[in-house]
Each structure stands twice: as C-alpha cells, then as structure tokens.
Model the fold of this input.
Amino acid sequence: MSHIDILLPFGLPPPELASDLIRQLKTPALAALLGRARSEQQAPEWQSFDGFENALPHETWLAHQFALAENLAQGGSPPAAAAAMTMFGLKPDDGVWFLLQPVHIHVTRDHLVLMDQRQLLISEQESRTLFDLAEPLFSEIGMPLRYGDAHTWFMRADAWNALRTSTPDAACGHNIDIWMPKGNGERDWRKLQNEVQMHWHEHALNQAREMRGQKPINSLWLWGGTPTAMLAEQTSARSPYTAAINLPEWMGALGQTRGMTAGQLISAAPQRGLLVLDALLEAALAGDWGRWLGQMQDLELHWFAPLLDALKAGKISSIGLILNHNKELRGYRTSRMALRRFWLQPTLNKLL
Done:
C-alpha cells in the first residue's frame, strides 16, 4: 500500500496570528486529515528552533532525510552545492563548491535586509551579464565560477571548507548580520562581495531595472558549501522515500523538482512518497498573510481534497503531514482506518 508524507513549509501560521488566520480558512479536507490524525514525535534536532538558525525548520528536516545534514550540527547550511551542480549538468571538479545566488540587499537606516530572491524576476540575460562582470574577480584569486541558471551560480573555494553559511530563506527579511558567513574565510568573502557590489552598482542593467520599478541586483548570497567527496555519499545514501516530488531546486539531483499533479501522484502510488508543497513559502517570508490564506485555499482544492478522497477510496493507505513555521516543526499521521473514527471531528486546531 502507498504512504505519502506531505511537507508543508509554513503550514503552521505564526502563533500570534494563528487563531485569526485559522478562523478564516475554509479547508474541510485539511481539517478532516488533521482532526483524525495522531501526532508523530519528531527528532529533537529538528523539533524546536529559536528563529536564528542557519536553515529553516523544513530545510533542516529535508537535509536529515537526504544525507545533507553534515554541516547543520556546526551551525551551517545544508551542504547542497555539489548535488545542485549535477542537476544543471555540471560536473564539479575536486574541491569545495558553494551555491552563489544573485540577490537584492536593502539598505535601511542601521542595517541590511535580504530580499526574497523569488521576487526579483531575474532574466537569463540579466544574470549572464552580471555573471560575466563578476567572473574575472573570482578567477583572479583562484575561485572559479560556474553558471547554473538565472538564480543559481556556483563558486569553488577549497580553503573555505569550514565556513558556516546560511540558506537565503533563513536570512530573508532579516538583518543579515546574524546570517552572514562566519569562520575561516569570512573576511575574504566580504571583501570579494564588496568588489562585486561596486562593479554592479552603477551598471546600466540595474539602472534599467530601477526605471521599470524593479529592485537592482546588488549582491551575492553564499551558502551550501560541499566538498565534492561528499557527493557520492549523498547520492548513494538510502532515503526513507521511494519517490520524492517537488523538492526544492537545490535538492533537484535527489528527486523530482516539479511537474506532478495530485492525480498523477495517486496513480503512481509510491510505496513511500514525499510531496513538498511550498506554495505558502513566499507569502510567509513576506508576511503577506492574506496571500497565505489564498494559497492555502488553492492547496485545499488541488491537493488536500484529492488526497483525502484517495485515502477514503483506499488508493492511499496513510498520509503524513509535516508542518512548520520558523520556530517549530510538527508531524501528524492519519490512515484510512483513522477516518472511521467518526467521534473525532474535523479541526484545524492542530495548526495552533
């Protein structure tokens, strides 16, 4: 029989807003799944957070499922760069590779704030132009750059193996000082980052973006450092899942990133499947809770309701729900048998 775990980043609303948001939700299928679900204890290392970690709770959970947790114990981000390179058809040379992403950093009166990269809408042409401007700065100090796509570049820096970095989503919307790279190489990185910023600052590309009302692309975010020797271990590690759907792009080499509907997933009937539904992520990071409500309604229509029907019909034997906000992660599990517990009413109170 088929079991499906659903990872729902920011499926838990922030505690101070949860009651009001839940009252506005019209998600009977999700309420039915939660109302008759039992709590599943999560491992201590990804159960509770203080909001200042180098990776968000769902990123930490994913890292533990797919042998990407190497750096987390030392306070770093998941070592994802080498696996991400293979998704773009790039073969990483021996050494230590980092993910490098073009971003906008907003200057406030007394600190700097990282903007969500998803909102930048960087075109391939823009990214290629900026890459070509930055590449000589890296090459001349022996740190080669490789191009993945408009949002994803890679940098080799063997001497920075112990550098502790943060995922861009963990830092998004915050004073970046806490999430900047720390450790051996941090000063060298800041110097290099500043040089790139100066080359990009007055470029016609950014002036054109600002004239169109878009934010300039004014910096780079470094994270996910991976020794290439770790790649073989990651790709050969046994995941608990026989199928992984809609993984984040930085995990693309370890599963399917896009392109499956609820009907297709139900028909595929994986023995143990993982489905990542990240539609709430952008709204939550922006604090746009009206949009969060709308996205939750879309998930109800396109995912929760069809999966509940499949569970009732016996096409799926059980469903797990893993939900988080930035300080907590919870797990629940329900089954076809559990749906017969008519005395347990559908409820969204488990989101509180």
